Amino acid sequence: MLAPAEERAAPAALAPEGQAERAQRRLLLALGVAVFMINLDARVVVPLLPTLASELGVSLARAAWLVSAYMLPYGLCQLLFGPLADRYGKVSVCSHAMAAFSVGTACTALWPSFGAIVTLRALTGATAAGLIPLTLAYIGDTVPYERRQAAIATLMASAGAAQALSTGLGGTLATVLSWREVFPVLGALAGLSALGLYFFGRHARRAPVVALGRPRYRKVLTAPRMWPLLLLVGSEGFLFMGGMSYLSGLLEARFGLGALHIGWVMAAAGAAQLLTAWLMPRLLPSLPERRRLAFGGMALSLAYLACAVAPHWALVAVGSALIGVGFILCHTTLQTRATEAVPEARGTAVALFAFALFLGSGVGTALLGVLLELSGFGMLFTFVGLALAVFTLITVRVLGRPPAS
């Protein structure tokens, strides 16, 4: 039987080369749309929380359980989907997960009970967990290494666009639409995305996969290139994503901005991600991995240092844009390395990589919150900026050379 990495050859055996290439592009587009929907749904709840709390008769703090109920299963279930994909096929698992996600999202608004809504958000978070890591693993199977980061950057731009849209338009949605109308619309759009995956992914589902026995986490964790990646991405999540959690608080506390204006300032990160991803194919030939890591990490460092001393919200907007540029350059390089760390168990490896990022983000948000209470926003962002500079130096030293082919 074929190994999962041999999925790259399967479409060519089933169709002429040009037709197979077009089919692959359509499937990657469908996967990108699915990732867009996952990220749009994940972020759209936050601006709706005051409305949800009022209509459901709960406190704002309790309404925030809807965010935790989505994100916790999303993080934990990363570990489940990797072995499933290595056993049954990445596109097949993505298609079924997206279908379940669409149903869960559409049904969220049908229940009057707060407990039932929390349960549905948990289920949708669990089903959403597999889309990004498995799409990354599929890109690893089908796209040559020298072009892989451009494909991954495009995928991350899709996620960034969703975050920018949901953050920027969140306040508008809360005032124009009822939250009970938002979720069925998102569910229907996600359902269309699932149909696209079933239709455009049919050639990939016909590709044989290895019938694995038990989850291969022991083999992945003992791979020599895996632990450095896990430690680096966990640190990145701790600093970059943990610090990002408090950017909105800085804008409110220091400049008195409301939710709508905060959303548009933070949307600069998503817009910068889109622009950088669009430029990535042109940048790759003249920008080796060492420079991508260096430029991306230093952009993140400078962004947080600028936010620490910003006298006006416009400088925070510039910092937000720098965060988007740095994220694409640095994080997609780490993701590209993860797709090549253990090729024979790529789904499991990328899922573990995503889990490490998520774990670092959760721990970072909690511990940086303690630092915020003790020292304020200026010290918090100064620490994150300086720590990201150290992170960049270590990352360039550890991953400065491309992996041996």
Provide structural commentary.
The protein has 405 residues and is an all-alpha fold. It folds into 2 domains: 214 residues, Growth Hormone, Chain: A; 190 residues, MFS general substrate transporter like domains (Growth Hormone, Chain: A, Up-down Bundle), CATH 1.20.1250.20. Helices cover 83% and strands 0% of the residues. The chain is built from 19 helices and no strands. Helix 13 packs antiparallel against helix 17. It is globular and about 50 Å long. It starts with 9 loop residues before the first helix and ends in a 6-residue tail after the last helix. The N terminus is likely disordered.
* Mean of all residue-level pLDDT scores: 81
DSSP, total strands: 0
Q: Which structural category do the helix and sheet elements fall into? A: mainly alpha
Integer count of domains: 2
Spell the H/E element sequence: HHHHHHHHHHHHHHHHHHH
Percent of residues in helices = over 70%
Tell me the Rg in angstroms.
21 Å
Second-tier CATH architecture of the largest domain = Up-down Bundle
CATH overall fold name of the largest domain? Growth Hormone, Chain: A
Q: How far apart lie the N and C ends? A: 23 Å
Beta-strand residue percentage = under 5%
Outline the low-pLDDT stretches. 1-15
CATH H-level superfamily title of the largest domain? MFS general substrate transporter like domains
Number of helices: 19
Shape: globular
The description of the largest β-sheet is: none
